[in-house]
Amino acid sequence: MPKRIVFYFIGFVLLASLVYYGFSRWQDTRQQVDLWTLVPHNAAFVVETNNHSELVSHLRETELWESFSVLPVAQRFQENMSMLDSVAPGSQRLERFLDKKNILTSVHVLGKSEVEFVYYIPVVSVGEHRFLRTLTENIVKSVIFKEETREYQGFLLTDITNTQFGTGFTYFSYHNNIILSASPVLVEEIVRRINRGNLSSIASDFKKVNYLGQPDVYANVFVNYRAMPEILGLFLKEELMPQVRYLSSFCRNAMLELKMDRNKLFLNGFSNPETLEGSFQSQLKPSAPRALEIKQLLPTRTAVLLHLGVREVSRLRDAARGKGDVYSTVLDSLARSFNQEVALAYMESYNMNTSPEKIAIARMASPSKTGALLKKLGEQLGKEQRQKTYSEQYGNYTLQLLDLEDIPARLFGEMFTGFEQSYVLQLDNYVVFAPESATLRALIDDIAVGEVWGRSVAQKSFLEETLQEGNFSLYLNTVNAWYILNRYVQEENREDLLQNSSLIRRFNQVSLQFAKAENQYYTSFLFRRQERFSATGQGGYVEEVSIPFAQRLISQPFAIQNAVDRSREIVVQDSLLVLHNITATGSRGWTDSLQSQVRGSIQQVELGNDNKLRYVFATTSRIQAIDNQGLDLEHFPFNVGDTLRLQRLAVFDYEKNRNYRFLVDDALGNLYMYDTRGNAIPGWQPRRMDYRLAATPQHLRVGGRDVILVLLENGYIYALNTQGETYPGFPFSLRVPITSEGIAKVGADLRRSQVTVVTRYGDVVVFNLQGQIVRREQLPRPSKSAMFDLLPDATGRSFVIVRQDQGKVAVFDQDLKEMFEKRFVTSAPKIVQFFNFGGGNQVYAITETGPQKTYLYDSDASLIGGRSLESNQPVTIHYNEVANNYTVYKVYRRELQKLSFKLPN
């Protein structure tokens, strides 16, 4: 009996233990877990969603999804989801399983080379448990997937492999939650994190923040700024990483709401300041945010802008930099003279091998005080370096050279390095610094014609959707910055960048802003496709104006501006040598009868006492200048010589003060120069070149020197001063013929100023203005009949190289990579034109003179409108930024036509 009692007692204890163990496990599975506490603290981003189907549905409606869905990573994800859904029980059960629940996705950097994701998915009902069990059983049975299980620190991990794609994922369950990732390393890290206990949320600073209950919010997005350098370091070259690490230290973390529209993506919320010593935030310590008032000075070709709104700009300085040198006292005073705004802007570049132009802009508290300090610094530099302070006039502006390395960095901190020397320009309440004077001259020109952010309809529309005031703002135009991105992305990632170019370039307007709000920063991230306003039908030509003439037209449509309102007009010449003006509305304006055909192009200058636009051009033996009524100006025309055959006219304004020089060349290679009164300039009557010119002479201003660049068809290169004298090192011969102009990049001096030319046989030659060849490279030449030309755009900042060979036309970019090749009906030489309107808006025009057909191609080499145009002359094309459409003027026999077209977005 006692033995039986003992036996029953032992059995009862065992049964009670089993019941208690089962109850404990049941309780464990019932226990609610904050999924945020499972996320490793090294996550760069965490995204929380609660309505999977609505998010996917809205994404599909956006243009963002249209672009994103074609990316390889998105396609692989879709394929895996489709295969999993094919083995899931029931119809579309996988999508319904993911719907209506809070799902976390964390983003991590692994091994300094990969980005991986972890998904945290709750299982909230018995039906969902049953669904998962059946799905697992079906995976085991499927030939598509392979399943393996293993034990890791007390948890059962399951590895699933897709045998078709070679991809896979690992998952385990924890308290009615599935943790899943393609990275077994991350899954094992989470297991170790659980076993260590004392779980804390990576987003503990935002416990009470949840945007998901608000209308049109699709996700909470947690950002770990301390991990940003690791993320960006995967793609960017190491030379940029010090600046990336510094800027990333402005805030430590953020919680943002995700909103989407058809052509934009918003992330808005709050960021917590970085508290670590030496951080960007601790140095800046901004107070009230500031408006972007420098928008009136920023060219539309700006690619990247870093803007800081801070009361005391001098906070940005590195106190130790330059301390104790002879310039430190005046630099200290100069730094304290700036307040409210300081910015660093990079301009659009056109190849990845050239450093982009940049400018630093700072607002002055007192223009007179800052101007006096700049003058004092210039005098001090001149005294120490034993040379006269250099300055140059450009129109009404003075460009002052401060020959001291990294002045902007000494004034505004390490973000502003890279200024070997600084040219300084005062504009209204701002000072602009640039390493090269040509950059400031181009800036002045952009402001003069209104090509700035403050007057750009597209840019103003973008800025209206950004924060109107900020302390730290970063603006990026991905189209303008395309070659900059190519230049600074790691070599192994450049292929991915090119593959994803359609997405990156399509959503081209990006901003990231921080504005002080009590103890946090209100944060706004905007990823936006440039707004496109109403336009004509996409893809085809729409005829707007057709004007018949009594006589055959013998010239191309010359583009001019109206002398009064600057509207775009056209001038054409007929076979009776009469010039006809066509206004912007398509009506006939003035006429002017000439004795011979216009040679070269028609140029516009501000002449006369009223300084209004006048039209200057050359005929066979004369230099003509007429007003907006077609009447000759006083002193004009200049009769250069009745026996001459002039080829082209160049107009130079050395100091932008309307003291023009008119230079013409004849068929023998003689050069003649005159002033506005018809006086012959000494040294140019004539300046003999011994051979015909290959292109119109160019004027370059280099460090206060005026250089006139002359290319001859026999391959000789001349660099002349204003008296026609040859600079040292010139002339020199390329020993190969040239038939097109060169493109110059002006540097700080003659040695650092470079000119690129291409010979008829495809040698791309870069030389400096000391007459030294810097490099020479041969383009592919498939046959001896292949001939090459260099085609600059209207601004002279970008170019393409064209190869013609037996009816085929190939186009090469500035990196000498072939972009496209087209075959045409005849083998005769074609008239090829290149129009670059910036921001990726490019058009190529190829005219066959025999069949009298012109073909227009977009930047993707697609034939615009699907057809050719009847045309026997070069065409003129304008771009309308507001409507995002193009206007083309063409002549054919006795008719001038104005057509419009719109390119696909």
Descriptive report:
By secondary structure, this protein is of the alpha+beta class. The chain folds into six domains: 1-31; 34-202, no CATH class; 222-528, no CATH class; 533-568 and 824-905, no CATH class; 594-688; 690-801, Lipocalin. The protein is built from 18 helices and 54 strands. It has a 20-stranded antiparallel sheet, sandwiched between helices. Helix 11 (328-336) runs antiparallel to helix 12. Residues 1-30 and 533-538 have low confidence and may be disordered. This is PQQ-like beta-propeller repeat protein. Keywords: Membrane, Transmembrane, Transmembrane helix. The chain crosses the membrane at residues 5-23.
The number of distinct β-strands equals 54
Indicate the overall shape.
globular
The Rg value, from CA coordinates, equals 34 Å
Give the class from helix and strand content and strand pairing: alpha+beta
Helix count equals 18
Give the overall average pLDDT.
Answer: 87
This entry's quaternary arrangement is: single chain
Poorly predicted tracts of residues:
1-30, 533-538
Helix proportion range: 10-25%
Structural domain count: 6
Keywords: Membrane, Transmembrane, Transmembrane helix
Transmembrane segments: 5-23
Protein name: PQQ-like beta-propeller repeat protein
Organism: Pontibacter aquaedesilientis
